[in-house]
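INTERNAL AUDIT FORM
Audit reference: QA-55
Scope: verify that the stored structure record matches its stored sequence.
Auditor: D.O.
Record contents follow.
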Amino acid sequence: MSAQDVVGVIESDPGAMRVLRAAAGLGLPDWWIGAGFVRNRVWDAISGLPASPDRDVDVAYFDPARADPREDARAEARAMAVMPGVPWEIRNQARMHLRNDDEPYTSTLDAVSRWPETATCIAVTLRDDSVHLVSCHGMDDLVGMVVRPSPAFDNAAGRATVRRRVETKGWLDRWAALRLET
């Protein structure tokens, strides 16, 4: 599966496209939707499973001028008004380094690159109604159905976090072919 195939998985899902259009309408700077929104759809497609419902829709954006968490709450309220029932999680990455005990992030994609698993460090955005994809650590783990810590989590504590996430989220129950490499 290529990057173009991954984009095709997203574009062929009318619900995913509605979510992307709603996110685009929020006018957030440097916005991307990542993590399970992309990963789960790809793993479902590879596994021949129907698309699983979104547990959350992680919209990451970057705006140092609006780093107050209340801005995220306002953006979530606007998103809910457009698409109620979608589990929106909208976060300004300009402040998330504080929660994650990292150096300040320089952009949304800098933050995304530090998410726990390489297959989670992937995101899409919509520009001129065209899906754009970024995979911060390559596509191999995503399309190979491998769970591996991202470089930011490649230490004993990080690997334990990744294993806990796999267990609590039930990934191995959903995707039998998934390989855990921690």
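Auditor finding: record pair retrieved intact. The longest strand covers residues 122-127.
Action required: none
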